[in-house]
């Protein structure tokens, strides 16, 4: 299994479990996560969701071999597993806690903008290297990162695509607290347990009210981003970036306007 799911004491835990591939996410993994989140919506016994990876790594983002095998016109249409996961996470009415240790690459960082309580280990490293791959932001990150951190800092992270640490992620408002790696999971589980013990209707209402002002613009931004992403995914710059990645060389974008 590459995604482990467990329901226990009111908490649905979704764990990346593909350490040999740095928890890189395949279409099948997106489907498993989307199905688990949609099931949790209908299960009154689930009162909180916990997303986590391994102590060594949260996720390296998309599995490029798997992802590129599905590239084509309409690669990011709403029936694709990644988009189903995006909609399921953004639409989850129950509180979502994330525990991030090690690298969180691409969607590994952007998915955190759709969680409610995000905690990072002191070894966490975040990156959104879309520009380095000839692509553009996804999962409404062009909106939400700027809202959290301000335009200038968001531009630095999204345009340059360079990695940044847990303390900077805290300063940017992406994570709520930074903890020693050995304490992270237990702390996040404890926070999820606190949510379970509180009135479920109150927690859902609070989340809904906090997200109401952003709901329409997030949905619109996700749609615009995905159309742009699909176009760029089959473009020459992305082809050069992916070819260079697999050939283990530096890409050359100088021939593109």
From TrEMBL:
Q: Where in the cell is it found?
A: Peroxisome
Which CDD domains has this protein been placed in? crotonase-like
UniProt keyword Isomerase present: yes
What Pfam families does the record tag this protein with?
Answer: ECH_1
State the name under which the record lists this protein: Enoyl-CoA hydratase
Under the heading InterPro entries, the entry gives: ClpP/crotonase-like_dom_sf, ECH/Chromodomain_protein, Enoyl-CoA_hydra/iso
Question: Which SUPFAM superfamilies does the annotation name?
Answer: ClpP/crotonase (SSF52096)
Q: Does the keyword Isomerase apply?
A: yes
What's in the keyword line of the UniProt record? Answer: Isomerase, Peroxisome
Where does this protein chiefly localize?
Answer: other
Look up and give the organism this protein is from: Massilia suwonensis
């Amino acid at each position: 299994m590459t995604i482990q799911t467990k329901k226990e004491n009111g908490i649905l835990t979704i764990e990346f479990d593909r350490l040999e591939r740095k928890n890189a996410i395949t279409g099948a993994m997106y489907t498993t996560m989307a199905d688990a989140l949609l099931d949790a919506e209908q299960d009154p016994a689930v009162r909180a969701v916990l997303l986590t990876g391994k102590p060594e790594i949260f996720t390296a983002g998309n599995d490029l071999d798997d992802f590129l095998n599905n590239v084509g016109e309409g690669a990011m249409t709403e029936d694709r597993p990644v988009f189903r996961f995006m909609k399921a996470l953004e639409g989850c009415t129950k509180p979502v806690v994330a525990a991030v240790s090690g690298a969180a690459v691409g969607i590994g960082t952007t998915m955190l903008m759709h969680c409610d309580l995000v905690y990072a280990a002191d070894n966490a490293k975040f990156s959104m290297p879309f520009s380095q791959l000839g692509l553009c932001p996804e999962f409404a990150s062009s909106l939400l990162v700027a809202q959290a951190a301000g335009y200038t800092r968001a531009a630095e992270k999204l345009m340059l695509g360079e990695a940044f640490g847990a303390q900077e992620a805290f300063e940017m408002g992406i994570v709520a607290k930074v903890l020693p790696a050995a304490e992270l999971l237990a702390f996040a589980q404890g926070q999820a347990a606190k949510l379970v013990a509180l009135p479920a209707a109150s927690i859902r209402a609070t989340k809904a009210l906090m997200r109401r002002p952003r709901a329409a613009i997030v949905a619109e931004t996700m749609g615009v981003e995905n159309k742009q992403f699909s176009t760029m995914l089959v473009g020459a710059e992305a082809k050069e970036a992916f070819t260079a990645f697999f050939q283990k060389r530096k890409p050359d974008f100088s021939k593109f306007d």
